[in-house]
């Protein structure tokens, strides 16, 4: 039976006090401007779920216990409950290599145009390779302070990414920003600090999780380096953190900032739709696997040697073909180990991030910035095959009968971190048949898993799109069951980031359609500067919940059908844009103001 989410569950997700959600506990009552235009009928529902509480001695995930249900007060305009904020990703090289704001005048003009179009904010990579380039713990935030001040002056919100990876080597990368030189120098004497494929090719895009706890960097481990970087960010951006500017912090967890292995990359000469390669052949991960196999009673097991090369197809390899190695006891053990290493890696870094941004204060009536994001890659090709080969090489142990994403969502939940997913714009019909892609089903699976773990989920497009079809697919994923004119929709994404800010976006026809897209994301409502009015309540970040035992995380691998999606969005971006669309929007805006 297809599972559905009822209205009460949705209201709970948006209004529950002290829940373990992706947005920090946000049970603050609406402020004095709130009007009791309508109330949700919750009197006959006696309880709401409390936060998940798991102890290391639990054999099962702790079951939420009853709590008294609040009577939720809402704002006068219930359509605002359907509002999904839109952010635009800034250029990769907005801060130049010499740590200065590139083309300030041009960027200011673009930011003002975005603001006039109703865009809520922008997102930017805060590159490790720029800020800490001069030497260990020698931080220079000057370029980013200039950028942040400009964004604030343009009255936009800001999402900042702690980018601990190289810029360059991924789809869409037009700029090259390497890791700090002093980090790369450690790799010259010990190349095993980098992810390595079976043939020995090193990927210098980011540091391997195999050395997360190794003090190879002037006495610091990689996780300690990430911690110190975030600590310096908080100290040097305190004024922006305490203002209404910074609303979200995204924590990079791997290549392209995503929680995955670099299984498909330029250094491997990968071409779409190649299956990619396992990247766990550095000496540290090899030793870790050998130790795990020995403890499991199989000291003879080695890492796979039959998984092919990055541009192979599944059926050409012994590992991924039908009835291949991935289905054997040895194969299952390896895939479990490989994916579990990602879980532990992400959990450890998010725990440090939570400590750093713990208790961020806000001025009275201002919004708080205590929000953590983390990204999962959208590996949609070969999803329509038994082995899901590219997902497996990336570290997502996802099969038709095994959910590889929900355990990640469950891990995120203890840190109050948003699950950020990509490829929102993709439709199956647009992908080549030979890729066996199911981008739509993948999006539905990952978002549903996040919602089932009581998370907020956000997303972005994977590739630039300027057409109505791409925008409409994003709109559908943002509100899978459409708007609710009486209050919160059944399902709603926390926010959407559009990739990315380019000159092409500002071409008249493209920008006219984009402005309509923003309006539709806002459920045909005017730009709303106050997130509380669309139910984004926040309080200072609290400490992460206790560690969730690995066996409890893996209980989430049980396959469950995704929530149902509508066929098409009910907030379509039509070709009717430009002057006439602007006139219609103006008339509707005046009518709504007069009515209220």
Automatic annotation (TrEMBL):
UniProt-recorded Gene Ontology molecular function terms: beta-amylase activity
Gene Ontology BP term (one): polysaccharide catabolic process
Catalyzed reactions per annotation: Hydrolysis of (1->4)-alpha-D-glucosidic linkages in polysaccharides so as to remove successive maltose units from the non-reducing ends of the chains
Keyword field: Carbohydrate metabolism, Glycosidase, Hydrolase, Polysaccharide degradation
Enzyme Commission no: 3.2.1.2
Alphabetical list of Pfam families matching this protein: Glyco_hydro_14 (PF01373)
Coiled coil: none
List of catalytic residues: 258, 460
Domain of life: Eukaryota
Family matches, as InterPro entries: GH (IPR017853), Glyco_hydro_14 (IPR001554), Glyco_hydro_14_CS (IPR018238), Glyco_hydro_14B_pln (IPR001371)
Primary enzyme class: hydrolase
Key word Cell inner membrane present: no
PANTHER family from the UniProt entry: BETA-AMYLASE, BETA-AMYLASE 1, CHLOROPLASTIC
Protein's recorded name: Beta-amylase
Annotated source species: Pisum sativum
Biological classification of the source: Eukaryota, Viridiplantae, Streptophyta, Embryophyta, Tracheophyta
